[in-house]
Amino acid sequence: MKNQKKYMNSYLAGVLLGLLILFSFYLTREGLGASGAYKRVVAKVEHIVVPSYIENTSSYFHKYIKDGKEPMKNRLVFMVIGAFIGGFISGGINNRLKLKVEHTPNITSKKRILFAAIGGILFGIGASFGRGCTSGAGLNGMAVMAVSGFVVVAFIFGTGYLTAWFFKKLWL
Fold first, then answer.
1. Would you state the pLDDT for residue 170?
2. Residue 41: what pLDDT?
3. What is d(CA 35, CA 139) in angstroms, rounded to the nearest whole number?
4. I need a labelling partner for 123 at 20 to 30 A (CA). Which of 42, 56, 130, 161 fits?
5. What is the residue-wise DSSP string for 117-160?
6. How far apart are CA 60 and CA 63, in angstroms?
7. What is the C-alpha R_g of the chain?
8. CA–CA distance, 164 with 171 (Å, rounded to integer)
9. Which pLDDT does position 3 carry in this prediction?
């Protein structure tokens, strides 16, 4: 316990995140979000690999390239890149840049990576169905006092709480 590294106070981090969302609305007239950036990356890759498919109006990603649009020229893409770079800098400053898989002694690193990947994929699919990720649909919605934002956050946390019981052996 002596070498335990300190993290930012969670209440302070929450206040700073709220201020960042408000600042984002002030500057861009839009809030935060990440899932849109990943959709744009997929649209760009699809446009490179199978251009005939994405140029078809029935393609899910067609809206990102229609009228000659460049899917990567979007504030969400730059925001995710900035978050990645900022996390890397923060990790470097706080001596946390290590390549490791954190898991309990009850499971292997491979199993932890597999379940993390499955969880990430399911969350990405859910973000597509919900038309936004936790920050896009939840935090931004709550920031503008939309009922939908509160409902989304309640369901995200509620579902996480209910399903955590089934998967607790992966962490405990």
1. 72
2. 92
3. 13
4. 56
5. HHHHHHHHHHHHHTTS-IIIIIIHHHHTT-HHHHHHHHHHHHHH
6. 7
7. 19
8. 9
9. 57
Q: Match 């509620």 to its residue by tokens.
A: 158
Last residue of a domain, one of 83, 98, 113: 98
Give 10-residue mean pLDDT values along the chain (172 residues).
70 90 87 85 92 87 88 90 92 86 85 89 82 80 88 89 82 70
Joined tokens for residue 79 = 């925001």
The C-alpha angle 7, 149, 143, rounded to 5 degrees, equals 65
> Is residue 129 a part of any domain in this protein?
yes
Write out the residue range of the structural domain in which residue 138 sits.
99-172
pTM of the model: 0.76
Is 29 part of a structural domain of the chain? Answer: yes
Residue 81 inside a domain? The answer is yes
Other beta carbons within 10 angstroms of residue 140's beta carbon come to: 22
The answer as to whether 14 is a domain residue is: yes
